[in-house]
Amino acid sequence: MPIKYELIVYWSEADNAFLVEVPELQGCMADGQTYAEAVANVEVAIQEWIETAQILDRPIPNPKGRLMYA
Fold first, then answer.
1. CA–CA separation, 49 vs 16, rounded Å?
2. Which of 13, 40, 41, 70 is the most core-located residue (most Cβ within 10 A)?
């Protein structure tokens, strides 16, 4: 599944890991010891988030791409 949602990737000194947030999917995030591992982990988290939303009959936001900040 190609990722079309915006990902925010950053290093967390407290967690000693890269963290990845998916702002358009509330609560969807993952971590990893490397940048690539964190992104791979969030790909799984996105798929699971969508599958869970489908099971619970909850809306799945359409990807908006790059979010605009003021």
1. 25
2. 41
Query: What are the backbone dihedrals phi and psi of residue 10, each rounded to the nearest 5 degrees, phi first?
Result: -150, 160
Structure tokens at 29: 């995030």
**Helices and strands counted in the chain (H then E):** 1, 3
Q: What are the structure tokens assigned to 40, written together?
A: 């791979």
Tokens at residue 30, please?
Answer: 């993952």
Question: Is residue 47 predicted with pLDDT exceeding 70?
Answer: yes
Per-residue pLDDT band for 64 (boundaries 50, 70, 90) equals confident
Rg (CA), the chain: 13
Does residue 41 sit in helix, strand or coil?
helix
CB 9 within 8 A of CB 23: no
